[in-house]
Design a protein that fits this description.
This protein is α+β, with helices and mostly antiparallel strands. It is built from 6 helices and 8 strands, in the order H-E-E-H-H-H-E-E-E-H-E-H-E-E. The protein has a single domain, classed as Gcn5-related N-acetyltransferase (GNAT) (Aminopeptidase), CATH 3.40.630.30.
Amino acid sequence: MVWPYLWMPQSLLCYRYAMNSAISSGTDNLHSGGTVRRAVPQDACRIAEIKVAGWRSAYRGIAGDFELFSGLQTVSSASQIEREIEKGSHILVEETKHIVRGYIWFGPPSSAETGSCSEIYALYVQPEFTGAGAGTALIRAAEEASISAGQRKTFLWVLKENYRAINFYRRGGYSEDGLMRLLPDWKTSQIGLEKTLRL
């Protein structure tokens, strides 16, 4: 399966959605709706901020302080992300009122053991905006783009202790596929989750 740079249909280059009015409680009106679009190089710094904040929020107590603080820096992350965007990696951002609140990075499988599928490499939302629909909008847009690319299954790895993320994916139709891989540096492991994509 070839994943060319422009395989995403035009309708998904700027994917608008309406959030559930039940979560429209923010006084700054940042919970009223948003746009999912392809990331551009100018988004790299903001994406890096979200990555760093997301890691430190989700993995504190799982990873060590060195990995989350000394080993994770916004500047170096931004440089890597900018390179990925420029070479055409499939990175989408969710933006509301000109504020990027989350991102998703996906593409072909990173390992042969997962079979033919699309893989979600990263999905993070700024901790202050979790529960506002940004993550759901991002994963739906990635799934629709994967279907347009001819994929019928999507896959991801998640830390086995990251119960909040596991529950989020389960609500979205993902289930464990039996795969597991060790992360010796973190003294833990990841489990594989998959979902059959429907037209």
